[in-house]
Recover the amino acids of this structure.
């Protein structure tokens, strides 16, 4: 038969366990209130109720008295926690958007005459004929039948052995060949301009010597990223701005593509500023990834140019006049229509510069 001492020890342990459980439940209730997990404050047991005696009437009456102070006390903490959570989600989304996107590209097939026997790299069958047996991708070197070229996936991976020039090269082809987010011409020219030319009067409006601009073009085509465009080689910053504008003018597909051109022009015709901004945001979604990334980088640069408007005298309107026809070209329209579109081209670029932080 157990002694009286052992019975007292067991009873003391049980009381200690009950007190520990009560403290744990009290902490859990406070944590729930802090995070706002409960539907209503009245459903959370208050501190006074947890300390009250075994009378159930007191436990149910206490929360109604302290519910309002508790809500007032925990509301700032709850708002802060939600803001921090939203900030973390936003930062994670931005980190994902900073990753180099996977640019899809179609093959640039051209009729080709192969020397000796050759097999199709798509169906693995022999290519018959003496001349023009099949087609070859000018960017990645893929050799296939003419019929097979119609079903080959858009998975062209340009090779630098085939892409031997920078100017007059398709923008997506260039960035995929060099595995970059933007053409190196754009990055290098903008970095040089911002380093020593933001305060230059008439920046982008004054033209440099065409012979020296051609030299810069040949340097990029010949040396790529190793091209020297520093002040030691070209002291006049207008030569670098001219080389950048020339690059955009010579793109086979303009920065604002032919497919998206009509949508951008229609957007510029909208008189309401808010509706125009919404329409422009939707129009930007029509651009390929390489084009939208290059346009974003360029507009951010031009926005910084306008920050020095007092020194360089280049406002967003002036830059729109310069870059409108450079970034946008009418797809096979008559001369009169193209002439009428110039004012809308200017307005599109001006709106992109002014609202760069919102649109991109």
């Amino acid at each position: 038969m157990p002694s009286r001492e052992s019975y007292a020890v067991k009873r003391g342990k049980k009381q200690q366990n009950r007190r520990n459980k009560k403290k744990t439940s009290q902490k859990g209730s406070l944590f729930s209130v802090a995070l706002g997990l409960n539907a209503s404050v009245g459903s959370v047991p208050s501190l006074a109720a947890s300390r009250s005696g075994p009378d159930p009437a007191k436990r149910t009456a206490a929360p109604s008295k302290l519910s309002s102070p508790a809500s007032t006390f925990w509301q700032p903490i709850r708002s802060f926690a939600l803001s921090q959570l939203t900030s973390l989600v936003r930062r994670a989304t931005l980190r994902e958007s900073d990753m180099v996107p996977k640019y899809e590209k179609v093959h640039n097939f051209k009729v080709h005459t192969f020397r000796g026997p050759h097999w199709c790299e798509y169906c693995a069958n022999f290519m018959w004929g003496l001349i023009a047996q099949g087609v070859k991708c000018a960017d990645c070197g893929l050799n296939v039948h003419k019929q097979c070229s119609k079903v080959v996936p858009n998975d062209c991976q340009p090779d630098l052995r085939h892409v031997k020039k920078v100017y007059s090269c398709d923008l997506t082809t260039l960035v995929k060949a060099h595995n970059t987010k933007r053409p190196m011409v754009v990055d290098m020219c903008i970095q040089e301009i911002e380093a020593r030319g933001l305060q230059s009067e008439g920046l982008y409006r004054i033209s440099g010597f065409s012979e020296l601009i051609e030299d810069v073009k040949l340097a990029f085509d010949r040396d790529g990223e190793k091209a020297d465009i520093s002040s030691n080689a070209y002291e006049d910053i207008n030569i670098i701005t001219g080389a950048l504008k020339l690059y955009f003018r010579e793109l086979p597909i303009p920065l604002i593509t032919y497919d998206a051109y009509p949508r951008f022009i229609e957007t510029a015709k909208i008189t309401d500023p808010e509706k125009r901004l919404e329409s422009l945001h939707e129009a930007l979604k029509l651009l390929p990834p390489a084009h939208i990334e290059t346009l974003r980088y360029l507009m951010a640069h031009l926005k910084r140019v306008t920050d020095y408007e007092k020194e360089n005298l280049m406002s967003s309107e002036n830059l729109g006049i310069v870059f409108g026809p450079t970034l946008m070209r009418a797809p096979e329209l008559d001369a009169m229509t193209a002439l009428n579109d110039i004012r809308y081209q200017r307005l599109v670029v001006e709106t992109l510069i002014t609202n760069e932080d919102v649109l991109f």
